[in-house]
Amino acid sequence: MSLPVLSAFTLNRLELPNRVVLSPMTRISASPDGRPTEEMARYYARFATGDFGLIITESVYIDETYSMGALNQPGLANDAHVASWKIVTDAVHKHGGKVIAQLAHAGALSQGNAHTADVTVAPSAFTPPGERSPLYGKGGAYPKAKALSISDIKEIVGSFASAAVRAKHAGFDGVEIHSANGFLPDQFLTEYTNRRTDEYGGSLENRLRFLLELIGAARAAVGPDFVIGVRISQAKINNFEYKWPGGELDAKAIFGGIAKAGADYIHTYEYNSLAPAFDESGPTLAELAKTYGSVPVIVNGGLTTAEEAQKALTKGGYLIALAKIALSNHNWPKKVKRGEPVTPFTDEVLAPTLVIKESELLSRDEL
Question: How many independent structural domains does the chain possess?
Fold first, then answer.
C-alpha cells in the first residue's frame, strides 16, 4: 500500500525509509549502574526489523548527580554507558534502523535515583503534588526539591552537551532533549514550578532560556550534522490537565525559540494529538509547532491506525510516533504496507510491560 506515512523522509542529513517513529517509552531494564543490557539491544533491534523509520530510546539520564528519574534507568553519563550503548546502536544499525537517544533530567519529578539520597532539584524550591510510583523507586510523596543556583544551571547545561557527545561516540544518529511531561526543562518553562526572579524566571522569555541553552550547547558540542530534537508537551505526569496560560502566543514563542536555537525537529506530545491544543476548536499542538517552529514536527499521542497516522500528517506532522501500539505491533510499518490490521494493545495498563518481555525481543541468534 502506498501511503505518505510510508514515504521516505530526510531529517537533517539522516535518511529515513518512512515517517514512522518509535516513541520513547520507559522500560527500567538497564543495570543498576545505568548500563544498557543485551535485552535492550534485542528490544530496540526488533523495531528496526519491523521497519520503523526512526527509533527514539527511553529517557536517558545525563549526569551522576540529580538527573536520574527512575531506578534501572539507562544513562549516558560515563564511558561505561557509552560502551554498553554501542551494543544497542550496532544492533539497530545492523538491521537497517536509525536510533536517537532521548536525554533527560527529571528534576523535582525524579522517582528513584541511585546517585543521591532522595534529594531532587528544580528551578525553585517546591514540593511536587502527587505520589511517586513504586515501579520506579520506593514510592511515596515527592521530596521537596532544592532550588538550583546559577552555577548549578550552567553545570547541567554542560552535562547535556557532554551527554550528546557521548551519544555520538556511542553510535547514535542523534539526540532528543526531553522537555515534556514536567521534566526539568518543563519545570523552568512552567510558572508555578519556576518562581525565580533572575534571568531564568519571570517572563516567558526568561523561563524558556534554560531549554534554549540546552539546545545551543548540544549543537555547539556535536556540530551541524548530528540530529538534535526536542520533545515537548503541555501536560505533566502529575498535572495532566495543564495548558500553557498564554495559549497560541506562548506556542509561538516556544516553538519559534526552539527552532532558532538549533533544533532539527520538534516532537509534540498530547494525550490526543488530533485534538485542538487549547479550545474546543482550533489548531492542534502539532499544527502550532509547524506554523511557528519552521522545522519538521513529530506528532505523538493516541495514534494507532494508518488512518489516524495519515490524519496526523495533515494536522502539522512530518512524522508520527507510536507508543503502546508499537509494543503489540513491532512491525507496524510492514503491516500497514500490506494492508493488515494492527493488533490491539491488550494490557490494562502499561505498567506490566515496563520491564521488557521476552516476546518483545529479537532472538539472540538474530542479534
Answer: 1
